[in-house]
Amino acid sequence: MQNIDIRPCTINDVPKILPLMEQLGYPTSKEVLDARLKRLIDTEDYGVVVACVEEKIIGLVAWSISPLLVADKVRVHLEGLVVDQKSRGMGVGKRLMEFVEAIARASGPAIIDLTSGVRRSKDGSHKFYKRMGYGNEGFMAKLYFRKEIE
Fold it and tell me: What CA–CA distance (Å, rounded) separates 123 from 121?
C-alpha cells in the first residue's frame, strides 16, 4: 500500500468527495455539500479530514465533540466514515479511525460513539468496528432512536 496522507478537508474537495457521500448512503449535490461544508469547516469541535493516496481522495471521516452531562468525559461522535469501495481492505478506514481516536485522547477522557445502519452489516462495516474495539453489548448496550424535525 502506498502512503496514505490524511489532511483537513477543504471546500475545493467537494467535487471529489461527492462519490464518497453516495457510497456512504447520503447522495447530495455539489451545491448542498458546498453549503454544509462551508458551515462546518470552521466550526469549533467539528472536523472533517480526507485520506489521500498520491493526492487522490480515497476516504473521509467527520466527527463532532461535545461535553457530557452523565460522565466526566467528552463525547466524540463519528458523523461519517467512508472509504472508496475500490480502496477498501487496505487499512484506510483504520488510519482514519486512529486519527479520530488521537483527537479523542487529546480532548481528555472521551467516549467515541457512532451509528452504523443495519444495511452496513453486509459490507463488513460492523465487523470492522468490532475489530477496532467498538461494541454494543452488555449492560450499557444502546438502541438508537431517531426523529426528524422539519
Answer: 6
pLDDT digits (tens, 9 = 90+) for 9-24: 999 999 999 999 999 9
Asked if residue 96 is part of any domain, the answer here is yes
For the chain, strand residue ranges (E) read 5-8, 46-53, 56-67, 74-83, 110-114
Residue 1: predicted pLDDT: 52
| Cα–Cα distance for residue pair 5/113, rounded to 1 Å | 24
Residue 120: per-residue pLDDT: 76
Measure Cα distances from 88 to 23, 31, 130 in Å: 12, 28, 16
How many CA atoms, within 13 angstroms, populate the side-chain half-sphere of residue 46? 12
Q: Is residue 139 part of a domain?
A: no
**Nearest-angstrom CA–CA distance, 107 and 56:** 30
Range of the domain at 95: 5-131
pLDDT at position 140 is 77
Q: Is 114 helix (H, G, I), strand (E, B) or coil?
A: strand
